[in-house]
Amino acid sequence: MTTFRLQKPEEEVRRVGFVLEKQGIHERIPAQVGLNIDVSGSMSDLFKSGTVQSALERVLPVALYFDDDGRIDTWVFSNDERMASLTPVTATTYQGYVEREIIENRSLKRVLWGGTDYAPVIRSNLMTYGLLEERDAGGLLGMIFGQKRDTFGEETRSGIPAINYFLTDGLNSDYDAAWRLLSEAEHAESQIYYVMVGIGNDEFRFLRDAAEEFPNVGFVSAKDLGQFVGGDDAYEKLLPVELCSWLKHEHEGEDDHH
Question: What is the pTM of this model?
């Protein structure tokens, strides 16, 4: 099984820069980088083998290139409301991160090795970046039942676009709820791009449908995650043409505001 180990972060960051230059990005565009990791039962072998750790180490140079803080905002999710936001991954914390922060993290006991739902973690992403706010629905019914209304926004709290990598190996059971969130965020022109990495041989109907429908969602197939992150073309796959075009568009829009 091909694997990747991050030995020289500075060298890998330069490789990220070379890939972006090929895509027409010749100056650094600031961006926040996030990672959603599927911790459903079918992913357990990939955790135990160290493959998820390899994937995390491959994403880190992307974060080091784009983000002034050099961090990966990290979430894990399974089904229902079983998800959690974790300590960010950085150049000083990445070694042994998956074992320490996920597998051996007692506070995640109720989250790990369940089913697969996407909506709760997408909602958490959007709220963390300030792209979604829950407000009182208003009116008598809102007062009585405490109903909330979602309000979606365009700019992140920091004003910097967010790139979020989504590692998942299975069919989600909340198609409609997850679709509605992505649709609302896209309609609001929210500053977030999802790179959906489908692991294994599933059809990934939701991920493919979302990538086809929304300009800020892309799908990447990783039938063998170890080979995917260990390949010489890993950064080309993690930084696809559509994402680079989206980043350039966001950057041009930012320039227009100044």
Answer: 0.93
